[in-house]
Structures are given as C-alpha cells and as structure tokens.
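Thread: Newbie trying to understand structure tokens

Hi all, I'm a second-year student working on a class project, and my supervisor (Dr. K.) asked me to get a predicted structure for one chain before our next meeting. I've only ever worked with sequences, so writing a 3D structure as a token string is new to me. If someone could post the tokens and maybe explain what I'm looking at, I'd be very grateful. Here's the chain:
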Amino acid sequence: MINQTLHLINQALHVINQTLHFINQALHVTNQTLHFINQALHVTNQTLQFINQALHAINQTLHFINQGLHAINQILQFINCHSYKKPCLNRNMAQ
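---
Reply by user tm_fold:
Sure, no problem. This is what the structure looks like when written as tokens:
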C-alpha cells in the first residue's frame, strides 16, 4: 500500500515537473518575443528620430527660403514704388 502511494506521488510530481517545464518553455518564448518587439521598437524609434531630424532640416530650409522671398518682395516693392512715382503704401519705402 505504501509503495502504491509513493508511486502515485512520484507520478504526480512527474506531471508537475513536466507542467513546470512547459511553463518555463512558454516563458522563454515569451521573453524572446518581447526581446524582438523591443528591438523592433528601438529601430522604429531611431527611424522616427531620423525623420524628425529631416523634417527639422526641411523646416529650416523653408524658413530660409521664406526669408529670401520676403527680401526679394521688399526689393520689388521698393522698385515698383520708385519706378512709377506712385505714393508708396509703406512709408519706409518712400525714404
């Protein structure tokens, strides 16, 4: 009777051990998956940083172009104001 009981306990412990082994494998796979996700998020973050830097450079370029166009516009207004002897709307141009 004691031998049968010990045998059943041994079988139960074996099943528990197998279950824990499967849980360990599942956790290992989960850990690997999370590691891959982390790597993907890191690459995505780097990509977004590069895009942000590119957009910043584009924004600066457009700002410089805008400043250049503003300067050209002022020159053209000055030329137009003085060419036709019309009263200038901008008092700074009349001087």
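A couple of things are worth pointing out once you decode it. Residues 64 and 70 are 10 Å apart (CA to CA). The chain has a mean pLDDT of 92. Feel free to ask follow-ups in this thread.
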